[in-house]
Design goal:
Length: 201
């Protein structure tokens, strides 16, 4: 159930970790079907969110100073779909459930996110799960994109025509098949006296 005691968390200029917007199988969810990602946050943000009841995880570094706090975010389209916007250069594109999985193959520069809290209780345990409400994610610029920005991109068509498998192959009957006569056997080849077996010792 939604927790009215906890306000939505608004996080700006954060880093996205382990994106799985396609819901592919993972070591935690072998069957797949669960869309999620993680958001790396600052120590100050982690402290404030923890005080409000959010579940905060930590990616351990070489020492405590290099530890990275983060929050796991679920992406669901069952009730109220989240608003997801991909920013690429000077363009913005709204992503939907059908194409949000393209984010899994991109490199991100930064992101702004709004999380909705969901309070859960199970077997005497309780916590607050983060669900995605709004996400603006900026794609990292390609190294050569600005250099060739004034060029026109042309897509090369495929050289092979796709096979139309909707048509069944025509069966040739015996009446249509050409007659065939086996050629007469030729004379045996004369021996050359050469042997191609294993060399003699």
């Amino acid at each position: 159930m939604a927790d009215n005691r906890i306000k939505n968390a608004r996080l700006e200029d954060v880093r996205i970790l382990w994106p799985n917007f396609s819901g592919a199988p993972t070591q935690w969810v072998a069957g797949g079907g669960v869309r999620s990602f993680c958001v790396a946050i600052s120590r100050q943000q982690a402290g404030e969110l923890a005080q409000d009841g959010w579940n905060i995880n930590t990616l351990e570094g070489d020492d405590e100073q290099n530890d990275v706090p983060y929050i796991r975010v679920a992406v669901s389209y069952k009730n109220r779909p989240p608003k997801v916007v991909l920013v690429s250069g000077d363009t913005m594109r709204i992503l939907h459930e059908e194409d949000i999985d393209i984010l899994d193959g991109l490199d991100f520069q930064t992101a702004d996110v709004v999380l909705s809290p969901y309070h859960w209780e199970l077997n005497g345990r309780q916590g607050v799960k983060a669900y995605l409400k709004t996400l603006y994610v900026v794609e990292a610029a390609d190294e050569f994109e600005r250099k060739y920005a004034d060029k026109r991109l042309v897509s090369t068509p495929a050289t092979k025509s796709p096979v139309d498998r909707s048509k069944s192959p025509r069966v040739v009957t015996t009446e249509e098949a050409p007659s065939y006569s086996a050629p007469a056997p030729s004379a045996p080849l004369a021996s050359t006296g050469r042997s191609f077996g294993r060399p003699q010792a």
